[in-house]
Structure formats: C-alpha cells, structure tokens
C-alpha cells in the first residue's frame, strides 16, 4: 500500500513553493533546483518513547522536487538517493524563507544532551525510490524543554556520498514540542471511555485525594462514576468532600457526560406478567417505558408516569 501511495504522490501536482529565487540557491548542472519536502504533517503532540507518525497515524512521505517546475524528480541518480534524518532547532528558518545554505542547516542540527542516549532512535535513513520516500519508525528519547526554542523540527538531508557536487536543499517539518511520556500516562481522555480509570476525568488527579476517595467508595471507572451521578449526585459530592468546589464539580460532571455510552439497555419489570417494563441505559438513566407492545421514550412520559 505504501508503494502505491508513493507512486500516487509522485504524480500529484507541485507542493506549495514560493517560486522566489535567492542568491543562496545553488542550481544543479542542468539548471534544476532540487529540494526535499515533507508531504505529510506530523501527529501532535509527540511524547518521548512514542512513535513519530503522520496525522491520524498515516505514514510520513518525502518527495524530491525540482522547484523550477514544481514536479517530483522521478528519474536520474538523485531520485534514488539515501537521506539522513536529523533533529533541528525549532527556531530554524522561522522566517519561512524557502532557501538556506547547507551550513545554516547543519548549524541548527541538535544532538543529545551530554550523558543521554541518542536524541532520535529508529530508522535514521530513508532511501528515495523514483523521488519518493517514507519515514520508518522513529522515537524521541528526550523532551524538547531544554532547547532554546523549547521545540524541535525533523530535518532530512542527502547522506554523505550521494549527489556529490550538487546542492539538494534539505527538508524540514513544522516546529513541535516533545513532552515526557509521563504526561501521556497521566493524560485526560476526550471523550472519556466507560472503562477508563476514573482519574481520566478532569479534576481527578491520578493517585490524588479525590481519586483515593472514589476508589474507597468502590468507584473505579468512568462508568462507575456516571452510574452514581445519575442515581445520587449528592452522595457523589459527599464522597468527594468539601475540597471540590462547585466550579470543579461542574467541570468534572460536564467532562464525564461527554462519555460515549455503550448502547446497552436494561429492562426492569415489576412482576411476572411483564406488562410494564422500565428501560434504563447502562449508566441507569431512564430511557423509556414499555407498556404492552408500545415503547414510550423518557421525554414523552408525564411526571406521574415517571413517578409511577
């Protein structure tokens, strides 16, 4: 599939190029101006130890383009070069100038902090095929908080020994932040899932006092929380205690209510004749009434029917 995508990319129209010439730009011997481009945007935010992926988990594609024509270069030795993947300072080329020198690019390459593992691990080289390539598995081992701009970029350059004497302008991604994976481990979910731990809800910190109080009361999941919230909100507030303000409670409840329910229903009959049944969803909200062969949704019931 990846190869089919790559072939299709090569046939696509040109990426957005500025079309401006610059004294820094070095043309190939045949008058072409070769540039590498990322065709895919990264899926953000990025965490240490997590896989670097394109948006929605897609592969990250790279193309070699002749900026004079805007077309992908599919033939010639340069269409099959090997590329090195590097990490750049986030503030490299902030002006969005399309052109820079090889020296400028190299001067913004970021190496690991002293005593740390290599900053980027995985498939650190890409081989172009007919001017198109795909990044392999890549993982950051360190966050970006220590760098001047507090952000990184990924960069691509032609590997040593290829395209000697010819300038191929490097590629760069947008600037992005890399956070410690601890942040992901403690991350809230939007929307939360029924089987999520209850601390995935806003205002409930993992292993914090609210989390411990809920666990002590037998509330371990978002579903547990919602079931009590439907039946007895005051009980839930009492469990959480006075440390939870009205504003925090509202935020917590609003977040919990965004949870997608399972679609499972329960019917409660008051006797064996099964003439009248009360329908509840999986968090025990009243969903409707079954009388004989008729189903009455909850919003159509009168107050007396609900009480009855």
From TrEMBL:
In this chain the Calmodulin binding protein C-terminal domain maps to 264-307
**GO molecular function terms listed in the Swiss-Prot or TrEMBL record:** calmodulin binding; DNA-binding transcription factor activity; sequence-specific DNA binding
Where is it predominantly found? nucleus
Could you tell me which residues belong to the region Disordered? 1-32
Give yes or no: UniProt keyword DNA-binding.
yes
Annotated Gene Ontology cellular components are: nucleus
Q: Which Pfam families match?
A: Calmod_bind_C, Calmod_bind_M, Calmodulin_bind
- Name the InterPro entries on file: Calmod_bind_C, Calmod_bind_M, Calmodulin_bind_N, CBP60
Q: Which family does it belong to?
A: Belongs to the plant ACBP60 protein family.
Q: Which PANTHER family match?
A: CALMODULIN-BINDING PROTEIN 60 B, OS02G0177800 PROTEIN
This one is known as Calmodulin-binding protein
